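Exercise: predict the structure of this protein bound to CU-O-CU linkage.
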Amino acid sequence: MKHTAALLTALALFTSACGPKAGDPDPEPDPEPVYAMPELLGPGAVLEDTNPDPDIVEVTLVAYEATVDLGDGIVFQGYTYNGVVPGPTLQAKKGDRVIVHFENALPEATTVHWHGLRVSDDMDGSPRVQSPVEPDGTFTYDFVVPDAGSFWYHPHVRSYVQVERGLYGALVVHDPELDPTYDAERYLVLDDVAVEENGTLSPNVIAGMDGMHGRAGNVLLTNGTSVPTPVDVKEGQVERWRLVNTANARTLVLSIEGAEIRVIGTDGGLLETPYWVEGLELPVGQRYDLEVSYTEPGETNLLFHTLTYDENNNAVPVAIPMFTANVEATGENAPIILWPEVPAIEAKAATRSDTITLDAINDPTVGLQWRMNGEAHPEAPLFTFGEGEVSDLTIENLAGPEHPFHLHGQFFEILEPAGYPGLKDTVLVPGGSTVKVRAYLDNPGRWMAHCHILEHAELGMMSEVVVTPAQ
Ligand code: C2O
Ligand code: CU
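Solution:
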């Protein structure tokens, strides 16, 4: 038997000696081409993947205090991921394993939450499941990204302070099979910050107006700057823009002038059927993916709409550009992008229905408290679902201010109001109104359910639901 092995080795050597000589064409079949992620324009920094395995993304994320310069004289000692605001973009492709070596060099405890990713609950950054990472502590987040789309990451401890001071970053999961190819892809991370006369951040408070409506900034930010530099593009080009609103509270009312836009994706990834729009409302936490076709030369502007008041106290609409593209004339027509066959959301009937009420009380001892089902910071889970259950969830906003309701670890569809197709993880519930969603409880674990107005969450609108694993 030993002979045979030796003979085989000799044969192998012989074969290789007779193999191709230098200069011969390479006889090996080309290896599977490695998927190259599209370049993402927008926040400058990208997390560097140090793992050679094409299916593993391994990065280092350090939270620390640093000087933050938002332009226009706005400079302050902020909180950063890897020294920049927004934090560096994390990119992966669907199905990848992502390993994040996280270090906390902040003077306070924190966690990292991967907003919208259906990871396991011990990797979700919920301080109810993971003990927060203390100053000088480390934690390794290690999870698989099951869904493609536009996501973001941010802390889940005192987030009304930590996010406002600069802790947030974009997270993109590409889909090599379905993602259409565009002339360019951008991530526009939209925010507002509250700034004092001297250019520093206003102190965070959770009382008064900020407690009631959440902290409204007086300066708009796009990718961490209040003065975004216009970019140069060409007539006839088509781009994919990913938008996220990372503000503490403000819903952004947006439009795009000078281009044609269709909504191609939402929180849960690409839509089966894109639809054309002229504008959209982007509550905090939500994302939209837009296809932007530059159909006319001149300027394309992403506009933020609000009201100001003139000397007679009449409301005057104003539109403030948050992003500008200078479109060079080419006479070219923008091509129609053939839409890929995005699978329809599997139609599943509800197995139960549930209700969440949102309201507030003014507690004489502790002040304003925001409540879910009649309780601020309820300890017990709001609901216990079985894995695979489908809940028609009615969310009733019994008070005045709006609440962007966010559920971790699962997706839902918005049933009412109509007109919001696709899978979502965040839905705006306007003051005094009721919203209905169909939630797919597919991911077992303990999951936070809360208002994404960070001051409301801090003042009690923060709860948990449980999804028990199927046997
Ligand atoms: Cu974007 Cu519980 O958070
Ligand atoms: Cu709220």
